[in-house]
UniProtKB/TrEMBL annotation, chain A:
Keyword annotations: Membrane, Transmembrane, Transmembrane helix
Originating organism: Devosia ureilytica
Domain of life: Bacteria
Annotated InterPro entries: Cyt_c_oxase-like_su1_sf
Gene3D superfamilies associated with the record: Cytochrome c oxidase-like, subunit I domain (1.20.210.10)
Residue ranges crossing the lipid bilayer per the database entry: 12-34, 46-72, 84-103, 115-136, 148-175, 195-216, 228-249, 255-279, 291-313, 319-350, 374-394, 400-419
Top-level taxonomy: Bacteria, Pseudomonadati, Pseudomonadota, Alphaproteobacteria, Hyphomicrobiales
Name of the protein in question: Uncharacterized protein
Length: 450, 103
């Protein structure tokens, strides 16, 4: 029987992701990027890509390398690729950020860094997508959550290709009417494929499985799940149509965008209703901290989608920025932080105690964390997110920076909790002397049970 | 009815398996209803059929090994074959009533 194994590089992905998140929040708290500067200013682009590529994409790829095998019941195909992918993405991101700063005349750095960085990122994402697609295709049958992940991976490829084209335009390597049209209409598509198609759909797919597992609730296979999936597919198809019209005619296609928006709203509504059903049908009465925190993350998806609809209806740039902030840091980032709280403890338990089961009394996964200590920092994080988004809407730079500084404090304290879990620092006394694992790169034994 | 040696070994194995705790749910695998069958054959050869609460969980192989180790340590057991199955899948209805009320 095939079994999922421990992904050795997942914690390295998470570590890189957290460094990027801390860096982005610190830059925003210092007043770099939006709203202190314009939405398309180079330093805003630095912060945005630190969050979307450095934090969210690394987090999602690390999680998929661990949980896609669980989702499809097959081992990760080509398990030696994760460090190569990580190196490509980190080096590509570093060059891309230097390229953005070069647009501002930073140390006379060449703007071609943009194209080179984008190329490395495209290569890293392509290799990751091929590896994860191959794992999906090796499964005998694909559950619906895996379908969300497949759509997400397709979107990643489109977002990365579009990003590389935009980078080439900004670097002056592509010109003409197409470049003007791409900057005018392509940036929104790039963001929609990245934040919506890639990150949101992949998060939906992974969360369906994880929420069901953690709540001990029956897996959802009903009308709402199918509606969420097919609406998301239609939304993605609509987005692809808009992109093709843009490439063919250098013009935007308003009707296509409207249809995409409607289908996306339907997908999000069905997904949230379905997840509410999972919580209602759970057999685990008491919610552990990560599952209570996930409710806040899901609520942020509803809020972010509502703000986005408002922004598109009114054409308000601050509301659009607030919507993106809530979707990126509230929904995806918030859900990521709460899931990390569980996943880090679970991976640490697997590494330290799983091999001893049946031979000694082992702790529960939950024994590796102290919820009472961590809970206030999750509350701080989500409250600061709401305050920050409100400050963006009302144009208060000072309040935004204070809220971001508080959000940064919350993240730093949560990272401290993750490190404590890795250090076995919160375990009951009986296991205090248990050998501690390496912080980032676990020394796991390879497992393959035929 | 007097218990046969095979029945005694089975009882000892089930007692030993109570030391194996599901890491996520925090209860032993017997009370959680994860052990479907313990079959003691001649010469102490034992077959255990079990499941896990989540299909393809990364802890599955470790749980399988833990069952083999705990059952193998029982006096009279010479060999343990552990089969992992998801047919039928585990449901919370399989839990012992005293665990279910604390769940």
């Amino acid at each position: 029987m095939q079994m999922a194994t421990i992904s050795r590089w997942t914690l390295a992905y998470f570590s890189g992701a957290l460094v990027a998140l801390v860096s982005a929040l610190a830059l925003m708290a210092l007043g770099l990027g939006y709203p202190s500067e314009g939405l398309m200013e180079p330093r805003t682009l630095v912060v945005v890509h630190l969050i979307t590529i450095g934090w969210l994409s690394l987090l999602m790829l690390g999680a998929l390398m661990q949980f896609l095998p669980v989702l499809v019941g097959r081992e990760l195909v080509w398990p030696k690729l994760p460090p190569v992918i990580l190196a490509l993405i980190l080096s590509g991101l570093a060059l891309l950020l230097c390229g953005f700063l070069a647009l501002d005349g930073w140390h006379n750095a060449p703007v071609e860094f943009l194209t080179l960085g984008g190329l490395l990122l495209l290569a890293g994402f392509c290799v990751a997508a091929v590896m994860l697609f191959a794992t999906l295709l090796s499964a005998r049958s694909l559950p619906l959550p895996a379908g969300f992940v497949a759509l997400g991976l397709l979107s990643l490829l489109v977002a990365a290709t579009l990003g590389e084209t935009l980078a080439s335009v900004l670097a002056g390597l592509v010109g003409g009417n197409f470049s003007v049209a791409l900057v005018m209409h392509g940036v929104g598509l790039h963001a929609a494929f990245g934040l919506g198609g890639w990150l949101t759909l992949a998060a939906m797919g992974v969360s369906y499985r994880l929420v069901s597992m953690f709540l001990v609730a029956p897996e959802r296979k009903g009308v709402l799940t199918r509606m969420a999936f097919w609406s998301a597919t239609i939304a993605l198809g609509g987005l692809a149509g808009v992109l093709m019209i843009l490439i063919a005619t250098n013009a935007s296609w308003s009707l296509g965008l409207a249809l995409t928006g409607l289908a996306a709203a339907l997908a999000i509504g069905a997904y949230l209703a379905d997840i509410a059903g999972l919580y209602r049908t759970r057999r685990r009465a008491r919610l552990e901290l990560h599952m209570a925190g996930a409710v806040a993350g899901m609520a942020m998806l509803g809020l972010g989608a509502g703000l986005l609809a408002w922004a598109l209806w009114t054409g308000s740039q601050p509301v659009l920025a607030a919507a993106i902030h809530v979707l990126a840091l509230g929904w995806l980032g918030g859900l990521g932080l709460v899931m990390l709280y569980k996943i880090v403890a679970f991976l640490t338990w697997l590494e330290c105690f799983a091999p001893h089961m049946g031979r000694m009394i082992t702790p529960r996964v939950q024994d590796l964390v102290c919820e009472r200590r961590a809970a206030p920092f999750f509350i701080l994080y989500f409250a600061a997110e709401l305050a920050g988004a409100t400050a963006i809407v009302f144009g208060s730079d000072v309040v935004f920076r204070i809220a971001t500084a508080l959000q940064l404090l919350g993240v730093m304290m949560l990272i401290h909790q993750y490190v404590r879990a890795r250090r076995l620092a919160d375990l009951p006394e009986a296991w205090m002397d248990h050998p501690k694992p390496r912080l980032i790169l676990p020394a796991t034994r390879q497992r393959s049970v035929a | 009815m007097m218990p046969t040696p095979k029945m005694e070994i089975e009882a000892d194995i089930r007692a030993a398996l109570r030391s194996v705790i599901d890491p996520e749910l925090g209860h032993n695998i017997i009370d959680l209803g994860m052990v479907y069958d313990v079959d003691v054959q001649d010469a102490g050869v034992v077959g255990v059929v079990m499941t896990t609460t989540a299909r393809f969980c990364p802890a599955s192989a470790f749980l399988q090994e833990a069952v083999a180790a705990a059952a193998g340590a029982v006096t009279g057991v010479t060999r343990v074959d552990v089969e992992l199955t998801y047919d039928p899948p585990w449901t919370p209805d399989r839990m012992a009533p005293e665990i279910a009320v604390r769940f």
